[in-house]
Every structure is written in C-alpha cells, then in structure tokens.
Amino acid sequence: MSNENPKEAVVESAGASAQVDKKAAHNVRILRTAIACMMGILAGIASFFFAGQVDAATGSQPNAIIGLLILLAGIVFQRHVFMIARIDYTSLGGKDWFYQAFMTFALWFISWTLLLTSTIFPQ
C-alpha cells in the first residue's frame, strides 16, 4: 500500500495549475509590452519620415504635429493589434492602458529623437 495522502495530491495538482496560469498571464503581459514597444518604434520612424525635412540648424521638422498624431494613432491602433494577437483587451483597466500608452510614448520619443539627432551629427 502507498502512504500517499490523496488530499496532498490534489493540493499539488492545484498548485501546478496555478503556476501554469501565472506563467500564461506573465507571457501575455510580456507580449502586450512588446506590442507597445514595437508600436512606439514604428510610430517614431513614421513620425520622422512624415513630419518633413529636418532643419540642420535647429534639429526640428516643420510639421512636428504630425509626429504627435502618429503617436496617438499608434496608441489607439494597439487595440486592433491585440485583437489580431488574440489578447483579451476588454480585461484591461485604465492603469493597464496608461502603461501601454506610456511604453509607446517612451519608445516613440527615443526612436524619433535618435533619428533627428543622427541627421544633425552625421557620422
């Protein structure tokens, strides 16, 4: 006869399924962050190309407002990317959308700034 307790086996299997659920939720959060980062980089590159010729003296572009509009479009378009990636976006709260928007903004700002400064100081 085995000395195993059936209650311990149930607790172990429940713990294993909880760990699998935690890993799945973690992977979804990583995917959401990756989507936000990619949207920010793409928005930064699009902002650079669509905002006009860079003035070498000031480092600015004549239609910089287009860059901001592209950023906003990138933030809004994430919802559609979530649908394509089969991520449940309806469960996201305000804090989650703020995080998505901030990550998109941060990568947009970094990529657009790098592109603008690379034209001022050519290597």
Description:
This protein is mainly α and 123 residues long. It contains three helices and no strands. It has one domain. α1 packs antiparallel against α2 (64-84). The protein is elongated, with a radius of gyration of 22 Å. The chain starts with 5 loop residues before the first helix and ends with a helix.
How do the strands and helices of this protein lay out in sequence?
Blueprint: H1 6-50, H2 64-84, H3 94-120
Helix pairs in contact: 1-2, 1-3, 2-3
Low-confidence stretches: none
- Helix share, percent: over 70%
Distance between the termini: 77 Å
Q: What is the percentage of strand-forming residues?
A: under 5%
Kindly give the count of domains.
Answer: 1
Radius of gyration: 22 Å
Order of helical and strand elements: HHH
Which structural class fits the helix and strand makeup? mainly alpha
**H/I helix tally:** 3
Arithmetic mean pLDDT: 84
Strand segment tally: 0
Shape: elongated
Task: Report the biggest beta sheet as strand number plus sense, adding barrel if it closes.
Answer: none
